[in-house]
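To close the section, here is one more complete example, presented without commentary so you can practise reading it yourself. The ligand is G4F.
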Amino acid sequence: MKKRALITGITGQDGSYLAELLLAKDYDVIGMVRRTSTVNYERIAHIQDRITFAPGDLLDEASLIEVLREHRPDEVYNLAAQSFVQTSFSQPVLTGETTALGVTRLLDAIRIVDPDVRFYQASSSEMFGKVVEVPQRETTPLYPRSPYGVAKVYGHWITINYRESYGLHASSGMLFNHESPRRGLEFVTRKISHGVAQIKLGRESELRLGNLEAQRDWGFAGDYVEAMWAMLQRDEPDDYVVATGETHSVREFCEIAFSHVGLDYDDHVVVDERFMRPAEVDLLVGDPGKARTVLGWEPQVSFRQLVEMMVDADLALLRGDLNDLSHP
Ligand code: NAP
Ligand code: G4F
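Output:
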């Protein structure tokens, strides 16, 4: 019998890579999509014929129960969220409803419809926030610095609570930043790669950014979805840090991205207060030791390869060599 997986957030960056992975493993893939006024399947255009779409919204528990009843998945990957930290400061209640309470709605729907479902929660390194330990591991105390981080802490703990209270096979991936050519344009890495491509093609001359000193542990999204799947194949549910173990600043990202096309970032990057945050996460670097030992997971794409891959993809997109986000 083919396994069946439900992905919430399938139209997002991770949803698209996870759907590709599960299809390659011969799963039936159900993608939950919320109602939008225009269809936004750019990232999954190349596989959309192989996905069964199910209407549902994390804000509406009845819709989640309905999706589970109709499609009876073996595995549920909860990737849906209001995922942009900056927006969480201006829309904290919506962020809490989606990114925090949305997890409870989905866990509760699973408890009601089929408690044997295996569940993955997309937790985040933003939960470590103002870090109290370097590097961060599964046992590091949490200190979130944004409404998004706070909401993810709630989602993380409610996942553990449903595991302990109802015996659900519920695992939480504490994933550090992961990027790709399919990353949303508002996140700093894609903003830089897209900005570099625009400048290289002579369509822009400057790139306005916020805090250049922030440091992140950046990996490739295609590698990280492998860890999500591996967690649900374990006999016992658990929590795992997924990271590269390296950290780099936004400035370093700029240096490599601009120099890849023969430019100097200093000639084009302008610091703009509008992109600073009310509270910043200065440094993230994860210890992926448990994921490596227990899941056998290793990242394959280096930091430099990631930056160059993103710049090359944006150049190709803007030159018209690519017409959608279904690469690479
Ligand atoms: P993303 O590109 O922003 O995708 C978010 C997805 O959530 C989209 O498909 C969006 O649908 C969907 N969504 C938003 N609100 C919803 C709602 N009320 N009901 C149903 N679906 C809703 O995010 P991502 O980068 O792929 O990240 C996936 C998950 O991992 C998120 O939970 C994120 O917080 C978490 N995470 C990401 C990272 C990272 O570095 N990427 C690191 C740690 C954790 P629309 O297309 O309709 O907007
Ligand atoms: O790319 P970012 O917006 O990602 P952030 O805030 O680290 O969050 C991402 O990673 C989390 C995992 O740790 C996920 F949970 C979350 O969903 C999301 O995917 O910002 C990265 C850093 C920040 O320190 C920010 O202040 O870049 C700094 N930055 C500097 N200039 C900027 C900019 N960020 C953005 N978005 N735009 C700028 O112009």
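Once you have examined the tokens, check your reading against these statements. The CA atoms of residues 163 and 170 lie 6 Å apart. The chain has two domains: 4-178+219-242, 184-216+246-284+301-319.
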